[in-house]
Amino acid sequence: MEVERYEEIFLGISGVVLVVFLATLFYAAFGMHIHMMGAAGAIDPAKVAQTPPFDHPGVREIAPGKYEAVIIGRAWSFTPKTIEVPAGAEVTFLATSVDVDHGFYVQGTRVNMMLVPGQISRMTYRFNEPGTHMLICHEYCGLGHQFMYGRIVVK
Ligand code: CUA
Fold it and tell me: How many angstroms does the Cα of residue 32 sit away from the middle of ligand 1?
């Protein structure tokens, strides 16, 4: 079978691009340790309210200065809507969605996650300065999307 010169070049470039993308993917996964959320665990979205720790949403101190904030996202609210922590608190957010994909972004921080039904998202952040951070859903999730927000109050 005769292969055109341009076809050969095109196939060659496609092959190189594929190898570069794969190499980038492997480097991100194993070199930089970037992983999809879900490493924090899976959960049945229909049984979130009965599954620990989501059966008791809210914030609690798990060690001196360390807090765990368990938050449920649903169309179109976060439960609880407001959490309070003292300045200097290291907060590990554990969150999930019971219905559709939601965003979970704490303004002014690098806490930026997706809440996907069936998966638990986890991220830790230290709040050094007193103040109020808005927690906003930044993934369009339906008619009430713009009303889906909460507050992280650092005292
Ligand atoms: Cu939830 Cu947008």
Answer: 29
Atom of ligand 1 nearest to the CA of 75: 1
Spatial separation of the C-alpha atoms in residues 67 and 90, rounded to whole Å? 6
Q: What is the pLDDT of residue 3?
A: 84
* Minimum CA distance residue for ligand 1 atom 1: 102
pLDDT tens digit sequence for 76-123: 999 999 999 999 999 999 999 999 999 999 999 989 999 999 999 999
Residues in contact with 5: Cβ distance below 8 Å, sequence separation at least 6, in sequence order? none
Beta strands in the chain (DSSP E): 58-63, 66-74, 77-79, 82-85, 89-97, 102-106, 112-115, 121-127, 131-136, 149-154
Residue 9 tokens read as 């070049």
Both tokens of 96, joined, read 């999930």
